[in-house]
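User: Some background: our group keeps a shared notebook of sequences we're curious about, and every so often someone picks one and asks for a predicted structure to add to the entry. Today it's my turn. The entry only has the sequence so far, pasted here. Could you supply the structure so I can complete it?
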Amino acid sequence: MSHSLVDDAFAHHVWATVRLIDACLPLTPEQLATRVPGTYGSVIETLRHLVDGDGFYLYGLTGDRAYGINTDGMGLRDLQSAIETNGLAWSRLLAQNPDPDAITLELDDDGFERRATMGIRFAQALHHGTDHRSQVCTALTSLGIEPPKIDVWDFGKQVGRNVEIDPVRHHT
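Assistant: Of course. Here's the predicted structure to add to the notebook entry:
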């Protein structure tokens, strides 16, 4: 089976978000409420926003209102379940080989309108996730907690799509 050029990117996007939520499961309510200047909001608010945004992008690309979930008040396990469901949706959407130049239309109740290509919407979904995962990692670091390794290289190693061979060192 042939894969889309961006299948790995979206699989990483979901994997990294799930790992980050896993790292947040042991946090206390006070730690989840941690805010760091220059970031979106508290740890839990940022994770909710990340997952909410992901559903918003899927809704915009598919027209399926089921992706427009309300993450307000969702706990970590529910957020994790939602992003995993989104991962399946991303895979299905990519399998359709969408035209990256097709124009999508976003209309808001207040009259705002955006016309963007599918390629731009896909890129925005990935950027949005990366940006907010980084913010949560910053908050974890501020709490003295080592964030999980969630970069693309680590994802590639875990799924067998990145093999690294260290050089042989000779001792004299």
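Suggested note for the entry: The two ends are 49 Å apart (CA to CA). Helices lie at 7-24, 29-32, 43-62, 76-95, 118-142, 152-159.
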